[in-house]
Amino acid sequence: MSWFLLVLAGLFEVGWAIGLKYTGGFTKPIPTAATAAAIVASMVLLGLAVRTLPIGTAYAVWTGIGAIGTVLCGIWLLGEPATPARLICIGLILAGILGLKLAS
After folding, report:
1. pLDDT, tens digit (0-9, with 9 covering 90-100), for 48-83
2. Which of 5-9's residues contact partners 24+ apart within 8 Å by CB, and which partners?
């Protein structure tokens, strides 16, 4: 269950990171509120997950999910470049996440 909560926390991290782009510098109330809600949800879920998972592993996995998801959403939603170097780096982050999961 803790791993599920951690993955969900990582997905909310992607949501708030991408949400920042839509807040207009926190001038748009609805995107700002949704982004703030995603931040709170992400932190609460991370806090629940670390009750039973090692903090170093959980934090690294959480940030890795957030980083990968944010880059992929940036490519998909915002037209950011999908260069080979960026995709290789995403693969390296994913390998690190999987390695931490297998080592826990």
Report:
1. 999 999 999 999 999 999 999 999 999 999 999 999
2. 5/45, 5/46, 5/48, 5/49, 6/45, 6/46, 6/49, 6/53, 6/58, 6/61, 6/62, 6/65, 7/65, 8/45, 9/41, 9/42, 9/43, 9/44, 9/45, 9/46, 9/49, 9/62, 9/65
